[in-house]
Structures are given as structure tokens and as C-alpha cells.
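Thread title: Can someone regenerate the structure for this chain?

I was given the following input by a collaborator and told the matching C-alpha cells would be attached. They weren't. Posting the sequence so someone can regenerate them.
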Amino acid sequence: MNRAPIDAPRLRSSLATPAPTFYDRIDVVESTGSTNADLVARAADPSADRQALLAEEQVRGRGRHARAWVSPPRAQISLSILVRLPGIDPGALGWLPLLTGIAVVDAVRGTAGVAPELKWPNDVLLDGRKLAGILAEVAATGIAPAVVVGIGLNVDLDEAELPVPHATSLALAGARDLDRTALVAAILTEFARRFTAWERAGWAVEELAAAYRERCATLGIEVRAELPGGRVVTGVATGIDDTGRLLIGDEAVSAGDVSHLRGQY
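Best answer:
Regenerated them for you:
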């Protein structure tokens, strides 16, 4: 298929405020193993901060639990962002992937004309099917921890190219715009806006939590959570607490695979 490449000069010039001054470096490469792994390596340099890396193809992309994440070249957005969070409570770092999910949802809604939602913790759903996944990795600890957050967004894949049966793409959903350059610009702009506001708030999560809850399809429905160690919790997801944990009944879940039992995808 004749899929257009990401236009790096147009991407950089089209970023809206505050993104142009937020990012120190934005790179687009044809192929790499993993954009997350590349930025984790860069984070060894303590001056590396606010960098974005895009790859037209990832040959060793990873999702949660080291699952493979692959797609045909130029059919997906494979994007990683490196940021440092000076003075943050380490317990609040889990909000960064949730912030990223908000940014992806808002960018896709505004650019592609479809209405994705969030599935706790790090998936973006469209019509109940997985449109995007998000993976955050702590690259350096200390007073200003460095975190790399990766985004894999299905743009121009047909049914035969989907990585799993419960996935979807913007093309399959009839999105009005499949321009990956415009989509990336919107994602980077929304991420910069949300991150800047969070930092200015002293890493307080009230505004961020309200925005996440508003966009989260997991809340208010019956779910099944497979927790580390093999334990399973089922019940109605009643909320997200101030540390980003999912509340199922009276239990707070910090990690696990969550399935929606009503409207399950």
C-alpha cells in the first residue's frame, strides 16, 4: 500500500502552543527496534529531556508485560516521549501514562472526528475495540526522575493487518482524517499542554484525575481484573483514586489486566 511518510518539517512547524517551546528535540526515523528503548538509552544523559521520537516501523516494539506490538510500516503512529519530572512524589509517577491517554483521546477526537475512550489503565478504545496502547517506563530515578512514555496508535490498518482480533484502526472506524503528521502534531500538542499544567500545579492530580474519569469507559461497569500473582477480582469499577488506582468495589487495583464484562471487547 502507498502510505505517506510522516512529514517531519511540517510536523515541527505545525505544533500549537505550548508544544513548540516544550520539546527540546523531535526525531522521525524510518525504522528502529523500539522507540521506548531508544529514549531509555538517551536518558542516561542527565541533560536529555522533553524529547520525542517517532518511527515509521518498529521491529521490536513492546506493549505491557513485554507483549509484542508490531504493524506494517507507515500504518501506525509509533511515538515515544522522554520527560523529567523534578520534585515529583514517586507515588505520583503512575499518572504520567494516564495523562498521556487523555492527550491521545483529545487529539484523536479533535483531528480524526471519532470519539475514543480510555480503558484503565493504558488503553484507548474506539467502539469497544483497542485503538491505541500506552507504555511508560522509568528510565532514571532521583530528584528529577526520567520517564519514557510510548504510544502505539493504529491509523491505516485493514482487518487482515490488525495485531489482535479485538483491535481496530482509524481507517476501519471511518475517521475523517488519516493524516499521521496532523495526528502526531495534535498528540504532541495535547501532551505538552497537559504536562505543563500538571507541572505548574506542583504535580497535584485533582484536575488530571477529573479529566481522566470523564474520558474513562471502565467506570460504572462490571469488570474482571487479573492481578499479578494470578488473583482475579470482579465487580463494578466505581472510581479512580488519587494515586491512579482503579477501585473495584472496595478494593484498589494498581496493576493488572482489566476486561470489561459488559460491552466487553
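The helical segments are 8-14, 19-22, 35-42, 95-112, 180-200, 206-215.
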